[in-house]
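in:
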């Protein structure tokens, strides 16, 4: 073994230990009920994150500020959280019935409530994965705010540098013009250890019509609270509500979610029909089923993907409405989530499809009672995948009677990090392994690489690792997984949890048939082994259209021909 290999293994082991420490610390804090980010427990989280140096957080361990990581985190936390000294993680405790308006981050479906000038409450309805996600992002923010404080405090904490005073003056002023804004950005660049160009770039990415100075405001508040901690002793605090600690792990939201679905299936006399469960987004299955027929005039070329790119564009809302109208006329049932699980559902009864509406055909002479029902659920988040599927696959109880679902297949389409390829490429797993444990779940995947040949995308087959959180991945661990005999091709957050629920229902509880078909396919949202290709480098844009619809169409073809 070469010196480089020894060093790499050691670094991978260090990183694994750092992840374990992070999770043990977070579980301890949850049980304890509160912590101060600048206290002993907060420092344990901070030091573990700095040792780990996740790819998504870029230069977190350096003195200069990390800007791409900051955008990534701000898109997943509620607007205004940087201004709050007190952050309270709660269960669903009825805030929606108060006068408070929910703040929903653009890239995470979670309800947050600004209680007052100093407090933000964040509702946790999707289990521990949600808590880990939030605490990791908050720790990143506290690390960045600490950098600002150290750079601006001088004279043993009794004074601040001129750059900070000028930035403060701009942020607090009522009237602001572009010249003053540029000067404030020059001062800000100096505080952050970044170039003026870099600061202008992130200012443009974060600004909104309502808040053109959002970036400068965020930096000001991150610095202000960290400086006050140092100079006045007013420390930031994170708390976990007693109800959250009591409810966690009890499937409260998953049970409500599944009960509503089973009642709906029974009301429409669909419980006995072959059921095909698909975990996907709320548009690709509906569009694949109906778009080509609904928009035949607008898009006469049936083989082109242009139709799907157009449907994904905000300026073509009328086209989306046309497809949705045809889906509803063809019997689509849409269930808007009210359970707190934040997972919407669509139910398609193929017996109600006409030849002029659906783009797929069932075999001729198939009896009505054998025509498939396609059940589409929006993406779950981490451990929530187990909670929801586990509850869904349980039989429905009516008095002493148990009514079992007739589940034919479960298909999972998702985004994942790829370890050999680029954005938009495909991963077809043959097994899922759970990071940090010896748990592994091999399965027979009904999809294979040859299903996707000839479309100009790279397709890899092998093992996928289910990680505890995408924001904790670092290059050394991933390199080890990729190059070792585990033959890992990518990483995601839900596979193990889905498969654990499917296997327990089919093999142990016997609530669904033993030979239930499973299909897993992922498309690459990023390559965490390539600098500049992590999730923090931005979204997929139209790159995701082709793989999304190729996977969806392959799943639907198998369902219609099964």
């Amino acid at each position: 073994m070469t010196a480089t290999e020894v060093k790499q293994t050691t670094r991978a082991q260090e990183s694994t230990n750092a992840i374990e420490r992070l999770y043990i610390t977070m579980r301890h804090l949850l049980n304890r009920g509160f912590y101060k980010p600048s206290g002993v427990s907060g420092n344990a989280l901070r030091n573990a994150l700095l040792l780990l140096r996740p790819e998504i957080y870029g230069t977190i361990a350096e003195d200069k500020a990390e800007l791409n990581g900051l955008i990534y985190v701000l898109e997943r936390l509620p607007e205004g959280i940087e201004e709050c000294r007190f952050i309270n993680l709660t269960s669903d405790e009825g805030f929606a019935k108060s006068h408070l308006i929910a703040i929903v981050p653009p890239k995470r479906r979670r309800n947050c409530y600004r209680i007052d000038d100093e407090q933000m409450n964040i509702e946790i309805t999707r289990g521990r994965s949600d808590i880990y996600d939030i605490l990791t992002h908050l720790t990143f923010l506290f690390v960045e705010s600490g950098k600002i404080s150290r750079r601006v405090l001088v004279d043993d904490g009794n004074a601040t540098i001129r750059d900070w005073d000028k930035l403060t003056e701009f942020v607090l002023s009522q009237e602001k013009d572009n010249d003053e804004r540029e000067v404030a950005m020059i001062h800000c660049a100096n505080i952050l250890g970044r170039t003026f160009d870099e600061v202008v770039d992130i200012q443009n990415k974060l600004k909104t019509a309502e808040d053109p100075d959002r970036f400068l405001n965020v930096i000001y508040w991150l610095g202000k609270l960290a400086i006050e901690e140092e100079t006045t002793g007013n420390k930031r605090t994170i708390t976990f509500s007693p109800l959250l600690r009591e409810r966690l792990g009890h499937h409260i939201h998953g049970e409500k979610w599944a009960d509503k679905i089973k009642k709906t299936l029974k009301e429409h006399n669909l419980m006995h029909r072959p059921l095909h469960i698909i975990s996907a987004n709320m548009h690709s299955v509906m569009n694949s089923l109906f778009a080509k027929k609904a928009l035949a005039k607008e898009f006469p070329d049936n083989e082109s993907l242009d139709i799907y790119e157009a449907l994904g564009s905000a300026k073509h809302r009328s086209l989306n409405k046309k497809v949705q109208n045809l889906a509803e006329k063809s019997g689509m049932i849409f269930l808007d989530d009210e359970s707190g699980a934040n997972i919407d559902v669509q139910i398609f009864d193929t017996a109600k499809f006409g030849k002029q509406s659906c783009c797929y055909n069932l075999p001729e002479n198939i009896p009505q009672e054998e025509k498939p029902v396609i059940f589409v659920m929006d993406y779950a988040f981490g451990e929530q995948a187990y909670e929801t599927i586990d509850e869904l696959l349980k039989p429905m109880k009516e008095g002493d009677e148990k009514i079992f679902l007739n589940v034919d297949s479960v298909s999972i389409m998702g985004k994942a990090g790829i370890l050999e390829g680029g954005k938009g490429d495909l991963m077809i797993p043959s097994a899922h392994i759970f990071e940090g444990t010896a748990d592994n779940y091999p399965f027979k995947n009904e999809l294979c690489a040859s299903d996707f040949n000839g479309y100009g995308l790279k397709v890899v087959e092998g093992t996928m690792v289910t990680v505890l959180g995408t924001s904790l991945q670092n290059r050394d661990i991933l390199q080890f997984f990729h190059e070792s005999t585990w033959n890992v091709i990518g990483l995601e957050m839900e596979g193990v949890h889905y498969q654990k629920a499917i296997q327990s229902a089919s093999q142990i509880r016997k609530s669904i048939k033993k030979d239930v078909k499973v299909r897993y396919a992922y498309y690459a949202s990023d390559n965490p082994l390539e600098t500049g290709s992590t999730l923090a480098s931005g979204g997929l844009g139209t790159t995701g259209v082709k793989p999304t619809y190729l996977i969806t169409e392959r799943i639907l073809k198998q369902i219609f021909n099964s």
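note: The first strand starts at residue 34 and ends at 35.
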